[in-house]
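chain below, 820 aa
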Amino acid sequence: MDRSAESPGRWSFDQVEIDERQRELRVGGQAVAIESKPFEVLLVLLARAGETVTKEELINEVWPGRVVTDGVLTKAVLKLRVAIGDTEQALVRTVHGYGYRLVAPVTALEADAATMPHIAEIQNGAGVPLRPNWRFIRRLGRGGFGEVWLAEQAKTHEPRVFKFASNGAQLAALKREITISRLLHESLGARADIVRVLDWNLDDPPHFIETEYADGGSLDNWFSRNTDLSVAARIEMVARIADALAAAHSVGVLHKDLKPANILVLSDNGGVPGVRLADFGSGVVLDNAQLEQFRITRLGFTVVADSDSTSGTPYYLAPERLAGQAASIHGDIFALGILLYQFLLGDFRRPLAPGWERQINDELLREDIAAAAEQDPSRRLGDAAELARRLRGLDARRLERDRERAAAARSARLAQQVERAGIRRRWQFVALVTLLAGIVASSIMAWRELGARHDAERNLAAQEAVLRFVREDLLAKADPFQGDGSAPTVRSVLQLAHERAQQSLADQPEVAVAVLSTISAALGGLGEHEAAERDAEASLAIARKHLPIDHRTRLEAERVRADLDEVQGNWQRARAAYLDLQPRFERVFGVAHVSTRMIAHQLAWTRFLSGDFAQAATEFCTLAEDNSRLLGADHDQTAMALSGCGLALCRAGRCAEAIAPTERSIALRTQRYGENSPALAQTLFSLELAQIGAGNAVAALATIDRILAILQRHHLADTHPQFTLARHERAAVLLRLDRPHEALADAETAISTRTTAFGASHAYVAASRNLRARAYAALGRRDEALAEFDAALKIAEADGKDSELATRIRGFRDKVANAP
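prediction:
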């Protein structure tokens, strides 16, 4: 840690005093011997008091250029604790697996209070110390940050702001502000939206800095005089604050104390008032190399005086900082989200309490606030510039949202055309309408991109292209009154859609990608995996050739491909795809968008498939809470997450806790889709597992039979994934009920359908063959059982000899083999 450019100082915390100049440590007034390296560790922790310092950062600072193990650092910390009497880790706390944190409040003793000026003696009209021809006009503020005065040049009447330090902590803050101001100016150039430190006096008392003046004063004070400001103007002002914050972040500077008092307002001159981001006295420079590049002295960065990770104004302090984590860009963005919420309400004392959404009428602004002020920093908006872009794009986003709804309405009208065309068989009609609605809804992704970047005329042309395709290339060719007069099947319509899309949409890549990916999703839902992969790959080939990586339509096409992998059991590849897609979806659609929420759901589901049921339960249950807040308590995504929560809880051995979220999910889906919907059948699997976990196999069998009845009603049998799973689960339940003859029949069906759908060497087939082996054993057919166990185990071990499935099969086999 480079201190050569700044005089060493003295600090204290608890009963400990440190004199860096003398390299002396005193505890309770008594000098204590301490080795060099533990002392250096202490100095680094002092410099970041209240923040978690990683092990890597400590090693790089204390042992620069050397290869040092964690054990060496641990011994140094232990010696430090012994020296300062911290055997209970009350002062230096271990953050397990990460680093260490000095949690005691630190006081800087760099400058004795007796040497500081008596600020109270400064009066209006008095001369500014060390500044001839400057006179104080009025005090602007006073508090823990020091005293702030407005002064004027006697001849030119130019205004300036002088901030004075009356103690060591305030002096340290002034030094930090100087350092950060220089870095911002050297890196970004002159910016009207960030207050610049123009001059300073650190040599002789009184110590002060001299900064630019903003005639509107702080945002909160200015707004108290301008409460009639329009909502549009408030939104633009927040966007400008976001611009300034994004600029600071771009050069590795955190503000750490973003609030209305630290935002200054400039005269509006008849337009939207300008803003200036001020007071970086609590700020952080993330990369010291930036300072070295511009040869800037690290003033104020040898200690964080009277500062910790929870310093700041409570309304604006991010949850992770309250929990003791280090400051980050995410913390500044959280504060920005709170500020946006308060400014829209016109009340800077209003906390973001539960139910806040009811106070914001605009759904898009609700989404923006939720994205910026998300409790989990990993899900929070990652860039202040993105919030500015979203706020300035509200009109385009509203148009985009309106077009979505208009497209949905047009899809409903198309469904009526289908009915008038003579498609009478109920199940075929419903399936075809679902297909058409899906094609139009998926194609909306292309329209949304066009709506955001191009004019309305081209946007309308894209919509018409999709509708013309559905009406002329699909409906007309599927009309049972043409050709041989036979009613079309869903598969025949999908095949026709595939053929016509290749021909009709060749010169419109956005629309072609949307349509082909939707056809792929529909085929996958029918269990037609080979055809689904064909159209998914065709869609992606067009997308990769013609669309940018973050194009909305391309993102949706990639998600469809990942979904196919997940359904077919290639969950590891699917999970890798979802992990890649999640930040892109958040960046393009926003955290609160239904598509982004679905990616989060699939990540939790692949966690479940990996066998980490406890973590999957945590992710699903948290996802249900987040979806309820962001999308609504009765939203289908909320129901899906509740179902996953129940399923994972039960597989984690907590079946009693699983009942409530599962029943809630069933109630929501029944209300939304009715008693006989495939969507409800999917949720019923969670209930069946909870019933098994509770020891009620009879109720579980009734639930499985209900699922099968729903699937058969909708002709979703044969190779459909839910049908094959239901047969598998029914065999397992029947074995519990000691009905091996019936279990064997269901196991045979599951093996047959899963082999057709996934191939004979798939893990799903191994799981069903395990059930057949168990049925053989229960029927006394020991040799057949052992042979079947061996065949199933050979398949399962392809994923690893210690995989959950292989271990389970091996356990059953050993039990049968060792039976008398």
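The radius of gyration is 33 Å. The mean pLDDT is 79.
thats it, cya
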